[in-house]
UniProtKB/TrEMBL annotation:
SUPFAM superfamilies: GHMP Kinase, C-terminal domain, Ribosomal protein S5 domain 2-like. This is 4-diphosphocytidyl-2-C-methyl-D-erythritol kinase. InterPro entries: GHMP_kinase_C_dom, GHMP_kinase_C_sf, GHMP_kinase_N_dom, IspE, Ribosomal_Su5_D2-typ_SF, Ribsml_uS5_D2-typ_fold_subgr. GO terms for biological process: isopentenyl diphosphate biosynthetic process, methylerythritol 4-phosphate pathway; terpenoid biosynthetic process. It comes from Orrella marina.
């Protein structure tokens, strides 16, 4: 049995507030997570010998104990006592060290797929509990919709978000999450917000209150966060990342000179900006790339070769595999 080309979509943090820190060192967050169309692809072959093996399009080899895909497969084996195995191939498209949740999304897709392939019968809440042991972002991908996420990733509330397209900019730098969260200058006491506050702000979308910027060829992009008036839209990690990683700072500054106010996703390195339609996102991408390649002295000085790639993405309302697991309670015991 083989499951071919299973999607593992990336995410954006539309805002991210650090509101505290537990005694065990874990940071308490409030964030709005949103799935996007940029996606890894995973193929899984059933093995009957109980072994878990993995290959990837990445040239860099990851030790099994550090590989979220392998850890996810072994975690569901332990939780259910399943004696089957799997060979997992990951076709990576989501940049790593980018704040897009690629590794966590891969782990979530593996949990969803093996739960079905091995017929282990776990429901969504049980898979999410396993996912939380792997990483704070994994439960969000298993939950399967845009969500207001709190705590260390365990408090997840679905929200409705508008159909918006995005430009995602990947600076030429890999950022380890721990390097950002351990920085002594990180803001750790942002004021908490309520989901009802967010619901009020979302009404501004399409109402004429959104500030827009028109690039030279008539491409319309938002250059202000749609939540700026209520304190939403900031990322508490951004100041640390801009100070410590020059490539991110250069890309953000370059975009700003063109009227595009990009924001950091997660702990970076990726920045993103919103566009009204997929067509305007694609046109903006082409124009920005043309400016980058034009040889203009000012542009080259601002950018300094720091931008590695630009991705045009659609926002997703649902994870493509959301219906692969039941929300209802089953009889399967996890332990």
């Amino acid at each position: 049995m083989t499951f071919y080309d299973l999607p593992a979509p990336a995410k954006l943090n539309l805002f991210l507030h650090v509101v505290g820190r537990r005694e065990d060192g874990y940071h308490l967050l409030q964030s709005l997570f949103r799935l996007i169309s940029l996606s890894d692809s995973i193929t899984i072959d059933l093995r009957r010998d109980g072994r878990i093996s993995r290959e990837s399009t990445l040239t860099e080899q990851i030790a099994d104990e550090s590989d979220l895909v392998v850890r996810a497969a072994r975690a569901i084996q332990r939780a259910t006592g399943c004696v089957l195995g799997a060979h997992i191939h990951v076709n990576k498209r989501i940049p790593s060290g980018a704040g897009l949740g690629g590794g966590s999304s891969d782990a979530a897709t593996v949990l969803l797929a093996l739960n079905r392939m091995w017929r282990t019968g776990l429901n969504r809440q049980q898979l999410m509990a396993i996912g939380l042991t792997l990483g704070a972002d994994v439960p969000f991908f298993l939950q399967g919709t845009a969500a207001f996420v709190q705590g260390i990733g365990e408090q997840i509330e679905s929200v409705n978000v508008p159909d918006i397209s995005y430009l995602v900019f990947k600076p030429d730098v890999h950022i380890e999450t721990a390097a950002v969260f351990t920085d002594p200058d990180l803001t750790r006491d942002s004021e908490t917000v309520k989901i009802t506050d967010f619901s009020g702000c979302i009404n501004f979308v399409g109402s004429g209150n959104t500030v827009q910027n028109r690039l030279s060829d008539g491409v319309i992009m938002r250059n202000k966060t749609i939540w700026s008036g209520s304190g939403f839209g900031k990322n508490d990690l951004e100041a640390v990342v801009l100070r410590r990683f020059a490539a991110v700072h250069r890309v953000k500054s370059w975009l700003s000179t063109l009227g595009v106010e990009a924001r950091l996703s997660g702990s970076g390195s990726c920045l993103f900006a919103e566009a009204d339609t997929p067509e305007s996102a694609q046109l903006a991408s082409e124009e920005l790339l043309a400016k980058m390649q034009s040889g203009n002295e000012i542009s080259n000085f601002k950018l300094g070769g720091s931008l590695k790639s630009v991705h045009v993405c659609d926002g997703l309302q649902f994870h493509p595999l959301k219906d692969w697991v039941s929300d209802s309670l089953g009889s399967r015991q996890v332990g």
